[in-house]
Design goal:
- By secondary structure, the chain is α+β, with helices and mostly antiparallel strands.
- Helix content is 35%, strand content 17%.
- Strands 1-3-2 form a three-stranded antiparallel beta sheet. It has a three-stranded mixed beta sheet with strand order 5-4-6, with no helix packed on it.
- It is built from five helices and six strands; from the N terminus they run H-H-E-H-H-E-E-E-E-E-H.
- It is globular.
């Protein structure tokens, strides 16, 4: 059973065949699929799954805090099941590959005098560069 499926089962989330296949598609390290990619891969396992079901399931997973919605380049949002381990993203500006990067313990801390009174609830840091394949 995948990490995501285990977390969902522990929460008592009803795992229909459609929800299960979406969660299975999102399994793995460095997974950052678009909704269309999730739909395509889920359709290979469960041909009758609709695009609407995939979008609704992804929305539910984001609302539950079990999947992160990641927007790194102004294009389609991507979905990251690594929601419970602090990390940043490393994006290749050539091929758009996204990798998770462990966040250092003090990463993204904002000094109180620079917060303008905000109660900061999250930090998103994206590193950009060329991956080894694109560097040639």
């Amino acid at each position: 059973m995948t990490d995501l499926l285990e977390r969902l089962r522990e929460r008592g989330w009803r795992l229909t065949a459609q929800r299960r296949v979406v969660a299975e598609v999102l399994n793995g390290e460095h997974v950052h699929l678009t909704a269309d990619e999730v739909h395509e891969r889920a359709g290979q396992r469960l041909p009758e799954i609709s695009r609407a079901t995939v979008y609704n399931t992804l929305g539910e997973l984001v609302a539950l805090g079990e999947v992160l919605e990641v927007a790194t380049d102004g294009r389609a949002k991507r979905y990251d099941p690594n929601a419970h381990r602090p990390h940043h993203h490393l994006v290749c500006t050539g091929c758009r590959t996204i990798r998770d990067v462990p966040a250092p313990p003090d990463s993204g801390l904002l000094p109180d005098d620079a917060a303008f009174g905000f109660a900061v609830t999250g930090v998103e840091i994206t590193y950009r560069g060329l991956c080894p394949d694109c560097r040639g």
